[in-house]
Amino acid sequence: MENWKDSYVRDILSTHLLTQIPLSPRRNYASIVVLREFESTAVLTTEGERLDVEVVRAGQKQTELISRVLLQKRKQVAMERRTGRAFNRKLGWADECDFMSKMCGSCPDCLIYGFAASSSEGSQKSRILTDSGFSIRPYDALQRSITLNAIQDRTQGGVAGSAFAEREHIRPQAYFPTIETAVDVTPSEFAYILRNILTTTRYGAENQRQGFVKNHLVALLFGETEVISNLALVQHLYDRLAEENSGSINEVPLDLQTLKTRMEELLSDIAEEAYLPVQLYTGESLQNILQGLRFLWRNEEAKHEWLQELKNDQQTYLEKRENKGKKEKKGKGKKKEES
């Protein structure tokens, strides 16, 4: 039976990631390319009834302006953090850690995704780089207005009351190519991040009743730099799809496998053009990593070993940070005495 320390996944991640969490930035990047497929209607709005949109170029070659629906960066990470925090509570880690009142500053969520100083001292910068995602298709092809009705429960037969609101939704099977980049993380932390992404299924407002998403992992990139933005990724993808469909994709049903294949091809091209070395994992090599992760999260012995390493990695970092703080405080005290 394979354990975590001798696993294929850890061997691969150890080749590219740090063995310890550094006190100072090392700019060691691990980018996770995800194709988010909405399998139900969803509300992607910050305020009001209208969807969040941005007017941008359709592609790098197809230069006409279009309005694209936005999947805001905080609405991606917030849901994935909640998945991770629920997992932490299940393990008995950081039961008292709370977004609104007091962050504990020592659980995996705090140390990876960061926190601002609240009632406790100190803060932690996020080691997850994110940006808003853009829909492949324009707003006009995705938008659908749904009227909300009030139900009069005192009326015999449950007759619906008058309509009281109308809200814009995106249609099912809308696709958002996005990239999340982990910086200066260890293999155990990276597995934690992947677990949050791959097991989160609800995004957007009113996600108790809609907003079901399938996160398809398309590629992993390791290196000393980021190679492409979310906007450039969707524009390059739009160009390739438009070339195959006589310049327009608005009326053509998008195929999941075609999207994944085109994304793999363009990421390979982009990685080749990078100024610094980039290691790209797609296709069979990526599937081997995913299969290893499935085994890890389903096997209690391997999972326990992984979690113990995660805990040790972060405890070592906290101790180093505390010792550094004591030395700096002591050095400031000596300077005051000398002055």
UniProtKB/TrEMBL annotation:
Pfam families: Csc2. Residues 323-339 have a biased composition (Basic residues). Residues 317-339 are annotated as: Disordered. This is Type I-D CRISPR-associated protein Cas7/Csc2. The lineage of its organism: Bacteria, Bacillati, Bacillota, Bacilli, Bacillales.
